[in-house]
């Protein structure tokens, strides 16, 4: 039996200044699941995500990705398995052309031609922008840049996609187009977002974290239909939006 894409057990972490950011977080995401990670600013969402690819080291507890523990001897493979798509594509796109950007990750992990070119083509096809391969990322629209940033991660064939506020700063059409791409990928996904309607559209399950602990875990529709839960944890649906 295959291990889950992500297992977090008893994860605790304090920053050097003594601030305790996580207090024994448990989280399990099965292969192919799409899960939204919700919570107010300062809840511990980003701190948790930075443990998944080894940027932070757990003070206590364990994190496993596809059965492999996030630990120093395995960090290169862990960083291939955990594909993080940042909120700002500028943090991800820095090469002269789109194809160069998409090739950068897998080349870094030792992929060579002709496999490298196939990875680039497959990733750009998956996000619906094969025609952009020779363009400069600097000259693309926000929606195109977000999709290219996603392709740079897909080219590494990750075990789990981690998306940081994927809908931010997108116009309605680009937002819808990105959702269609993400739903078509069929990959395990952890989406960190304040956009509750987007969480409902993309993720059947949601996990709410606040003050460093998981306070709710269940079907997204049920959690968003609980006004007391949302109010307690400073989450708010857009005016007029009904679940």
TrEMBL record:
Q: PROSITE patterns attached here?
A: ABC_TRANSPORTER_1, ABC_TRANSPORTER_2
Q: Which keywords does UniProt give here?
A: ATP-binding, Cell membrane, Membrane, Nucleotide-binding, Translocase, Transport
Q: Where in the cell is it found?
A: Cell membrane
Q: Does the keyword Zinc apply?
A: no
The molecular function terms in GO held by this entry are: ATP binding; ATP hydrolysis activity; ATPase-coupled transmembrane transporter activity
Matching entries from Pfam families are given as: ABC_tran (PF00005)
Annotated ABC transporter domain ranges read 6-236
What PANTHER family has UniProt attached to this entry?
ENERGY-COUPLING FACTOR TRANSPORTER ATP-BINDING PROTEIN ECFA1, HEAVY METAL TRANSPORTER
Family from the record = Belongs to the ABC transporter superfamily.
Q: What is this protein called?
A: Cobalt transport protein ATP-binding subunit
Organism, as annotated = Actinomycetospora corticicola
């Amino acid at each position: 039996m295959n291990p889950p894409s992500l297992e977090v057990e008893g994860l605790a972490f304090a920053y050097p200044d003594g601030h305790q950011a996580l207090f024994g977080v448990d989280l399990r995401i099965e292969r192919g699941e799409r899960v939204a990670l919700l919570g107010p600013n300062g809840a511990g969402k980003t701190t948790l995500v930075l443990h998944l690819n080894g940027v932070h080291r757990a003070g206590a507890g364990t994190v496993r990705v596809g059965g492999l523990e996030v630990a120093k001897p395995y960090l290169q493979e862990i960083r291939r398995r955990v594909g993080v798509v940042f909120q700002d594509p500028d943090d991800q796109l820095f090469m002269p052309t789109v194809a160069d950007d998409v090739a950068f990750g897998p080349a870094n992990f030792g992929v060579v031609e002709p496999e490298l070119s196939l990875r680039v083509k497959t990733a750009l096809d998956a996000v619906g922008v094969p025609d952009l391969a020779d363009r400069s990322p600097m000259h693309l629209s926000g929606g195109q840049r977000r999709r290219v940033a996603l392709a740079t991660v897909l080219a590494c064939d990750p075990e789990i996609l981690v998306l940081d506020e994927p809908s931010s700063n997108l116009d309605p059409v680009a937002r819808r187009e990105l959702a269609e791409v993400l739903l078509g990928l069929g990959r395990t996904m952890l989406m960190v977002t304040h956009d509750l309607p987007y969480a409902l559209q993309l993720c059947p399950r949601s996990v709410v974290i606040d003050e460093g602990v998981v306070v709710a875990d269940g079907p997204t529709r049920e959690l968003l239909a609980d006004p007391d839960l949302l109010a307690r944890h400073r989450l708010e649906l857009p005016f007029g939006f009904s679940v």
